[in-house]
Design a protein that fits this description.
The protein has seven helices and five strands. It has 191 residues and is α+β, with helices and mostly antiparallel strands. The strands form two sheets. The chain has a three-stranded antiparallel β-sheet, with helices on both faces. Strands 4-5 form a two-stranded parallel sheet.
């Protein structure tokens, strides 16, 4: 695959949350989604989506929010195995000078890296990320408009409709890519 310099990877994670009243404090990753796309043309080039087995019981609120079922994660691979699949999927991007993932809000790539521990030595991304939410909020501030928080509501302010299921990692990654493309178009210098 020939990778153009204007290709970017959107990354999204879904996490389990501790059940209220328990001592559990960790938020293990339960799904990884990624989209590669050309931000100049808006064309999506590829998608990656896998459930992750957290070896934990899903919080019922997370099941309702994401639609991810306990059976989905119980039969899934470990985080390490899914990470290696992601690295394989990212193979054509190896050696690119800058491969910082695009996220909605910060932290998904850092959370992934921290949960991988020593496995992160094979880290395919840069040490930063592009935050589409911050770009969107900056655009809103520059136009004296109130801020929006969620991806789906923010998309409507750019005339976009959210496609897919909210809180599905691959759908969120795809929509993060779409809103970023729309923002890039808004930020271009106009004669």
């Amino acid at each position: 695959m020939n990778i153009a310099p204007d290709t970017i990877i959107a990354l999204d994670l879904e996490m389990n949350q501790p059940i209220a009243g328990t001592k559990e404090a960790k938020t293990p990753i339960i799904q990884i989604g990624a989209v590669s796309g050309n931000y100049k043309t808006g064309q999506i080039l590829g998608e990656f989506c896998e459930f992750v087995n957290p070896v934990d019981t899903l919080n019922p609120e997370i099941i309702t929010l994401t639609g991810i079922q306990q059976t989905d994660v119980d039969s899934a691979k470990s985080l390490t195995e899914v990470y290696h699949q992601l690295c394989h999927w990212l193979g054509p991007f190896k050696g690119r000078r800058l491969l910082n993932p695009l996220t909605w809000g910060g932290g998904d790539s850092e959370l992934l890296r921290s949960q991988l521990g020593d496995e992160a030595m094979l880290w395919p991304f840069g040490r930063r990320w592009f935050d589409a939410k911050t770009v969107f909020q900056t655009w809103r501030i520059a136009n004296d408009e109130p801020l929006q928080g969620g991806l789906a509501k923010s998309m409507t302010k750019l005339g976009l409709n959210f496609s897919g299921q909210k809180h599905s990692a691959v759908d969120d990654a795809r929509n993060t890519f779409r809103i970023y493309c729309a923002l890039m178009d808004k930020l271009k210098d106009r004669p």
